[in-house]
Amino acid sequence: MGTTMKDVARHAGVSVGTVSRYINGYRLKEINMKKVKMAIEELGFKENIIAKGLKNKRSMTIGVVIASLTDIFSTTIVTSLEKTIEKENYSMMLCDYNCNLDRLHRKIMFLQDRMVDGVVLFAGNENKEDVRRLMNNEIPVVVIDSNIEGIETDRVNVDNVGASFRATEKLIHSGHERIAVINGTKGDFIAEERLQGYISALNTYDITINDEYIRYGNYSSIGGYNCLMELLECKSPPTSVFITNYYMTIGAITAINELDIKIPRHLSLICFDRFEIMDVIKPSLTFIEQPTDRIGEMAGRILLKRIKGDMSQFPMDMRINTRMVMGKSIAPPGVTDH
Amino acid sequence: MGTTMKDVARHAGVSVGTVSRYINGYRLKEINMKKVKMAIEELGFKENIIAKGLKNKRSMTIGVVIASLTDIFSTTIVTSLEKTIEKENYSMMLCDYNCNLDRLHRKIMFLQDRMVDGVVLFAGNENKEDVRRLMNNEIPVVVIDSNIEGIETDRVNVDNVGASFRATEKLIHSGHERIAVINGTKGDFIAEERLQGYISALNTYDITINDEYIRYGNYSSIGGYNCLMELLECKSPPTSVFITNYYMTIGAITAINELDIKIPRHLSLICFDRFEIMDVIKPSLTFIEQPTDRIGEMAGRILLKRIKGDMSQFPMDMRINTRMVMGKSIAPPGVTDH
DNA sequence: TTGTATGCGTTATCAA
DNA sequence: TTGATAACGCATACAA
């Protein structure tokens, strides 16, 4: 702590410029190289990233904004994002806005004041102005799991439409026609895409859309619980359900257990997201696994690329494929009288 | 972007010194005050925190290190921690080390290079050297949910012993004697404390300790699942179980549902931690709620205090009380033959 | 109360 | 290839 280039320079008998050049990988005379190297080691010198940032107008920090730190899907992605950027010696300021738009705005301002070199946003249309401002200030932005109409940004999304199509199709192939969906939040970008996949699968197989089968659980487990309960109270309950996220799945399964319904005998299930408890639930669930590792890595890579000034292929609209993991939660519709 | 104090000074017709003083709340002549204020507004001036940091040797940033970003208990605390520090215009660098000690070390080094003004650590004995180094460099450290033997640091913990005592006692009061515990990781600070509470409750009521009833689920849901399964295979299975964290509870309940055991008729349950699904599970669980808000806030407050140089009452060993939320998961031991 | 000048730890420019 | 020096944006000691 506290030993500076000046100290190193003196110790090595060279000038600060030489030390700086050594640090930044410029070549210098063999002999000086050694002297500087030794001095650095002996003194335990560490460069001061703050001062460096002041000079280069680089903070070596990126800002990440997620809705909630307790949303495991986001934090899983952030984990791999961090791994990606730390390789290039970037660090991360992680903020959540708790679904409060005013707070979202403040957080983005905050990051800008902090001179972050780039921003990863788990949010979309809600804060166009902020995004615009960031981009005007030449701070690259990558948007995950969202989209911003009217603004061009790099985006990383899974192929929601395709994944939902395949999930729904899977149920159809097992003989289901009464297929319900427990979707996220109405109007939300992701939810709309997933709904679209569901609908187009049904259309493709000439199955009539039943509005009663389309429910919104706001991505929460309590929502999933309620939706499932409601679905079973339909005049003609579905024989299968497609659930579009993890938390709602938890809630739905809780409801199912309470009602003593057996999966897949009474009800078939396919859902989104793999998490810890998936491996523990029996019968095992069939689900769409979003490659969170890949998402985080992609977002990080694109952002770093932009930070370096490489604007090729802007704006990128990454669509990442999902894989379906086969469990035992789907069977032909059999017993439908609970 | 890019407007500096120099610009403001010129615009206001004063010197940079005056602007700086205005910014930092020193008093100046009414007239100058107004001029500076206006200039700042007109130019949209924002101070450069990086430059400020270089000068003051303050980064206005604290480092937070948690085991995993996907551990909801930690992230809930971090959320309230962030709320606390942001009030004083501090920001947070959040890192996880994925239970990898080498990574933990690197993360702490990283934060130190980043000149964080303080560190909150969700880790303990594993990295004494790092903690010592931080403190030698006068970077205050607050440890949450842990303890570091041989080093004095401020700590924030819940009263694990007391909470576990009360939880166990609750089961005893309902008439149970065959009480099992599904504990975290053997040897771990928290786990040891919770075990101690469990044991001393049994001792207090003259109930013999049965080693077979003490299981370790490593804080994971798969662990909780397995432990519960094993417990029920004991020659004389417990009539009640105390589970010491959220993930293990999830796993245990999954097992219980699979086995078609009824709570509390066949088995009584008390556990740690409130989270989303608690409100959804039926019968409702009786649980110990750790005041995550309070923990985060306390840690933040203590750290800020230390950063300001106030070392009074060092080292603080905050013990935060928990509250027990009454559900319907406890009944007298009745049917014990599953 | 204010202005000026210096320094925080780096990097970049310019001569040498 | 190197050294000296001027920035980067801000805070502060000192002088006025």
Overall description:
2 copies of one chain form a homodimer. Chain A is α/β, with parallel strands linked by helices and 338 residues long. The first copy, chain A, has 3 domains: 5-47, no CATH class; 58-158 and 292-322, Rossmann fold (3-Layer(aba) Sandwich), CATH 3.40.50.2300; 160-290, Response regulator (Rossmann fold). Chain A has 12 helices and 12 strands. Chain A has helices spanning 5-12, 16-23, 30-43, 49-56, 72-86, 101-113, 128-136, 160-173, 189-204, 221-232, 246-259, 292-307, and strands at residues 61-66, 91-96, 118-121, 141-144, 154-158, 179-183, 214-216, 240-243, 268-272, 286-289, 317-320, 323-325. In chain A, the strands form 2 sheets. In chain A, strands 2-1-3-4-5-11 form a 6-stranded parallel sheet, sandwiched between helices. Chain A has a 6-stranded mixed sheet with strand order 7-6-8-9-10-12, sandwiched between helices. The termini of chain A are far apart. The model of chain A has no long low-confidence stretch (mean pLDDT 92).
